[in-house]
UniProtKB/TrEMBL annotation:
<keyword id="KW-0560">Oxidoreductase</keyword>
<protein>
    <recommendedName>
        <fullName>Methionine synthase reductase</fullName>
        <ecNumber>1.16.1.8</ecNumber>
    </recommendedName>
</protein>
<dbReference type="GO" id="GO:0005829">
    <property type="term" value="C:cytosol"/>
</dbReference>
<dbReference type="GO" id="GO:0050660">
    <property type="term" value="F:flavin adenine dinucleotide binding"/>
</dbReference>
<keyword id="KW-0028">Amino-acid biosynthesis</keyword>
<keyword id="KW-0288">FMN</keyword>
<feature type="domain" description="Flavodoxin-like">
    <location>
        <begin position="9"/>
        <end position="152"/>
    </location>
</feature>
<dbReference type="GO" id="GO:0050667">
    <property type="term" value="P:homocysteine metabolic process"/>
</dbReference>
<keyword id="KW-0285">Flavoprotein</keyword>
<dbReference type="InterPro" id="IPR039261">
    <property type="entry name" value="FNR_nucleotide-bd"/>
</dbReference>
<dbReference type="InterPro" id="IPR008254">
    <property type="entry name" value="Flavodoxin/NO_synth"/>
</dbReference>
<keyword id="KW-0521">NADP</keyword>
<dbReference type="InterPro" id="IPR017927">
    <property type="entry name" value="FAD-bd_FR_type"/>
</dbReference>
<keyword id="KW-0274">FAD</keyword>
<dbReference type="InterPro" id="IPR023173">
    <property type="entry name" value="NADPH_Cyt_P450_Rdtase_alpha"/>
</dbReference>
<dbReference type="InterPro" id="IPR029039">
    <property type="entry name" value="Flavoprotein-like_sf"/>
</dbReference>
<dbReference type="GO" id="GO:0030586">
    <property type="term" value="F:[methionine synthase] reductase (NADPH) activity"/>
</dbReference>
Amino acid sequence: MCCESKRRFLLLYATQKGQAKAIAEEIWQQAGAHGLEADMHCISEMDKYNLETEKDPVVIVISTTGTGDPPDTARKFVKKIQDKTLPPDHFAHLQYGLLGLGDSEYMFFCNGGRTVDRRLQELGAQHFYDTGLADDCVGLELVVDPWIDGLWLALKEALQLQKEKEGMNNAVNAVSSSLSTAPYAVHELKLSSEVQNLKLEDEGARGSDILPQKLDDIKHVAPARDNEPSLVHSVPPVSQSALNIPALPPEYIEVEFQDAQGENPHLSSLISEGRAFEVPVTKAVQLTREDAVKTALLLELDIADTAFEYQPGDAFFVICPNNVSEVEKLLHILGLSGKGDDFVCVKVKQGTKKKGAVRPQHIPERSTLKFILTWCLEIRAIPKKAFLRALVECTSDAGEKRRLQELCSRQGASDYTHFIRDSNVCLLDLLHAFPSCKPSLSLLIEHLPKLQARSYSVSSSDLYQPGRLCFVFNVVEFPAGPSRPVSRKGVCTGWLAELVAPLLHPSKNSECTKRESSSTEKISIFPRPNNAFHLPADPSVPFIMVGPGTGIAPFIGFLQHRYVPSCYLESSLFMFLLPFRDELQCFLENGTLTHLKVCFSRDSSAAEVASPKYVQDVLRLCAKEVARVLLKERGYFYICGDKKHMADDVSDAVVDILSMEMEADKLEAMKILAMLREAKRYLQDVWS
């Protein structure tokens, strides 16, 4: 007897950095073990699916990017479903379940998924399974794993109900046709397609994709003296548990070394967001003193001979490489030290079990090995559990193998979060900690995500400085720790700092050590327009800017853009770093800037009356002015800078100010702030 064919469901993903795609691929891999078949597509591939005619259940995995925007791959889809001419029953036939990914450090948590979910509901679509919202701040797997566990039962019930409905409809059609000449009407039969939503806590069998790993199968070697867990060592109960580990992802890439020479692809081929521009760095300025806690740099780029356009408040991307020494270390570990400049051909492995396997878009078909590791793969990425599972098979030491299994298991979820995710561990750290692990190049290509371009806020105005683009950044530092044997600088900020270091030279300045030079160094950039974080359209509208540290960057562009000596407008700037003293003083004198409030968070002076250290403290001292601008004059409020340590505190201060000045309770003040956000008069450009 032939077995029953697998039932189909449509699986769509919308990803920015690869997280949503990886989760969708996990769902696809598990589907077969549950007797189901996932028809998986990127949501941007609208020629390969049609929701208007889709009869089977739909599963959507979607991330969030920017300030609550859907990922770039979902923009066309979102635009299509937001068409206001669509009727409210446009998707009345559609059953779906949605998993949203986000980070609660940001104001609009999971807004990409929420936007799609809300609009599908407005157009009549119905849930067959509860929406899941996973938080990268605490660990996506805390929601993703149980959500996937419960998905299979919900899918089977939805498909069974669909089958019964189709059978009932067929029966009704048959009866209707046989009685078409009867003198009485056949009553229309209605069958509800609604399925009661399943809660995340409901139990769901995972099937054969999760392999129970027994302790007897592996000799666990661990020093008896270690009583505390670490990256390489576990303690009970994890060390004594049978493990549920993910199924081994199928291999699908093979790499062939070639004798022929050639040229590497142009960097512009690495992006899908439009055109990249290679532009020279014309000036570099160190904004902080040599003894400062952080090193802040300002770079000026020459865009005069390009078609690059921007306005103040926009951001742009810098295409950056991985650190040269880290690439060399990786080549050494892979046993390929002498082959970095050899050309390789990357293609799909014949006979792979991975459905729809294709060469990753960010990997060129032919290039040097060093080009792939330098420009294409994010070798600093935090390894996902699927990657750890694959690394188990490349590890010869029994104790190391067991520990890697623990870290990717359900029982070791807490260890994974603490020792890998929160510790910002990367592949090199793992290979250092587990020296018997020797992965292949093809495995790295399969599991390491695309090296992402880094985003920076524009700190200039094309009206004020035609043909020039400026930006400011701190050189990010990652200190050494228990899970990271060496300190590192940020991938892009470290590279930029090294790039311009030979071009800087000291000059006398009482405020800080400034170093400037002309340069012929070039970097590749491409635009990232910001649809909201712009100046008010009406130049007479007052606005307040809060820019601690390098958060001042876009506001310099704002003030340059509004620089009109004969025109008075009200604008206030609150900040703690003061690298633009002369320029800001000029804006004060000509009336472009009407108030400048400065504070220094690391001021250790022993004055009798301590000056405010943080911007939120200064805001409270200026409560009446803040309330007047926002409430009476319908002004704007802008925040740029660190999300984790500043933006929330500023929001709390604004709520307190509104409550005090309006003589209203805190809840009412919070509603007013929410209205300001909705009207796009309270705007944030923040990062964590």
